[in-house]
Each structure stands twice: as structure tokens, then as C-alpha cells.
Design goal:
By secondary structure, the chain is α/β, with parallel strands linked by helices. Helix content is 37%, strand content 18%. Its cofactor is thiamine diphosphate.
Length: 293
């Protein structure tokens, strides 16, 4: 039984539990959008690739499973670069599938020809072009796995135009199963004990809740920690709601004072970047101790 490249792409995405695809159809990716809808993936047509890429990355942030952005070659790919960079920097899983010129037309001035794989490497965790139709399922599985494992981000898959309607026998295709959820890692017990001791001996501890805590759905455990230990806490903008702002221990209204006087900072899913003044004086104490989770 023969299967086309477009069907292989759609079936492989479905096998990886991909539910949403955003994009703008055109040469050579129209058939991919049609095939995706045929297997039950929800396709949302957009008016600009940048908006499509942001929408797909928002799905990744909200669900933990990457949304897919489908773009045409050249300008379509370029318009999506902002969304790729945004997803990677914000740790949002995203898959971008871009059409490109036929393999036998490379370097010949093909329609909207552009070095997309090379350009994508700066903004993606993975930027790759399948070498054949047979490996498309494995490449898509790797892209999905890479987008959600470790520090989540964007992955780009380049599809030559001649791959879309090219057919291959199913028996020669290397089908793969859905990738497993990201492995759960834990800190060394000695490090946990040391952190607990530092917190227990602090006089003015401050818990800072970041978007990593929100992304990992740790709200119940964090609320329990706040209530049991009576820790004052400060949410970063992307962590609003992990513990409600109307909780009596929320010090958002006295943010500067709380940061300046804390002798121990506990970072949960946060980094000492510009939002937190890099953890440096005069916003923080010179001798502040930091526990980062």
C-alpha cells in the first residue's frame, strides 16, 4: 500500500498526540494541511505566519504538547522566525513545518528558495530536513521529543516540495511510537537537606514563584509549602495565580522592600534575570543566599 509524504507527515503528527495546526497554505504545503485535517488534527487558517507561530507556541505553553505551525517556503518561513525565537526563549514547545524547494532545484533559483534549515538553527533546538520519506515518522518523533524534553522550545522540520506528493510503500516506512513524557528529575538528598537547613535558619526568607512552577503545575505543593511554613512569596508575571495574589503571604504590594530585606531567596521555577534585577544590589542584599529549584 502506497502513502504520500503529506499523509506520512499528518499520520506521524497524530501518532505524537498533536492536536492543533496553525498556518497559511500555499505551495508546497497545501496537501499537508488537508492530510492533517483528514486524520483529525484541528487546522486553523491564519492571515500571517507570525501570528500562526505565536498561536501554535501558545498551545504548547498551555498544554505541554507542541502546537504545529505550517508555513510555505521563503517569506512564509521568514515570517515565522519571530515565533520560533519567542518559543525557544520562553521554553514553549513548538513544531514548525516549512515547505521548501524540490531537491533537484536546490541552488538553481527555485521558487522562494532560501537556506531554511541553516537559518532555523539559530532559533530552534532542532532544525532538520528528512533525508527520505521513510524516516519522516522518526524525524517528527525526535522533533516532538526535543521540543518537550529538558528546556522546552521550538523545532523546525524542512519538507522538500517533491516530498509532499511523492509516494512510498508503507512497508518500507520506519514507524515509531509516541514519545514518552519528559523524565522527572530530582535533586540529590544532600542538596535538599542543605536547602532546608538554610531556609530553617533564615530570618527573612522570601519565596519567588516563576513560570516554571506554573508550567509544571506545581500549584498544590507550593500552596502547601506556603501555608505550612508561613513563607512570604512573590510571583513573577508569568506565575500569577499559582498561589492567589489575595493570599495573606503575598508581598507583591511591597515587592522592592521584600527583595531588599530577604536574607534567603527561594527560587521556584524562576531565574535571576532582568525581571528580578539579576539578583544584584541594591535591589537585593549583598549577603543574600539563593536556593534555586
Amino acid at each position: 500500500e502506497a502513502v504520500s509524504g503529506a499523509q506520512l507527515i499528518a499520520e506521524s503528527l497524530k501518532a505524537q498526540n498533536i492536536e492543533y495546526m496553525f498556518g497559511i497554505v500555499g505551495i508546497p504545503v497545501t496537501e499537508i494541511a488537508i492530510a492533517a485535517q483528514a486524520v483529525g488534527i484541528k487546522y486553523v487558517g491564519m492571515r500571517n505566519e507570525q501570528a500562526a507561530c505565536y498561536a501554535a507556541s501558545a498551545v504548547g505553553y498551555l498544554t505541554g504538547r507542541p502546537g504545529v505551525c505550517l508555513v510555505v517556503s521563503g517569506p512564509g518561513f521568514l515570517h515565522a522566525l519571530g515565533g520560533m525565537a519567542n518559543a525557544t526563549m520562553n521554553c514553549w514547545p513548538l513544531i514548525v513545518i516549512g515547505g521548501s524547494s524540490d531537491r533537484n532545484q536546490e541552488t538553481m533559483g527555485a521558487f522562494q528558495e532560501f537556506p531554511q534549515v541553516e537559518a532555523g538553527r539559530l532559533y530552534n533546538k532542532l532544525s532538520v530536513r528528512p533525508s527520505s520519506l521513510e524516516v519522516i515518522p522518526a524525524v517528527i518523533e525526535k522533533a516532538v521529543r526535543t521540543s518537550i524534553y529538558g528546556r522546552p522550545g521550538s523545532c523546525y522540520i524542512d519538507i522538500p516540495g517533491d516530498f509532499v506528493n511523492l509516494q512510498v510503500n508503507k512497508s518500507s516506512v520506519k514507524y515509531v511510537q509516541c514519545c514518552l513524557p519528559p523524565p522527572i528529575s530530582t535533586a540529590e538528598l544532600s542538596a535538599v537537606s542543605k536547602a532546608a537547613s538554610i531556609i530553617a535558619h533564615s530570618k527573612q526568607p522570601l519565596l519567588i514563584i516563576g513560570k516554571g512552577a506554573a508550567y509544571s503545575h506545581a500549584e498544590n505543593n507550593i500552596r502547601k509549602l506556603v501555608d505550612l511554613c508561613g513563607l512570604p512569596f512573590l510571583p513573577t508575571p508569568m506565575a500569577k495565580g499559582v498561589v492567589p495574589d489575595n493570599h495573606p503571604n503575598c508581598v507583591a504590594a511591597a515587592r522592592s522592600t521584600a527583595l531588599q530585606h530577604a536574607d534567603v531567596i527561594i527560587l521556584l521555577g524562576a531565574r535571576l534575570n532582568w525581571i528580578l534585577h539579576f539578583g544584584l544590589p541594591p535591589r537585593f542584599r549583598q549577603d543574600v543566599k539563593v536556593v534555586q529549584v
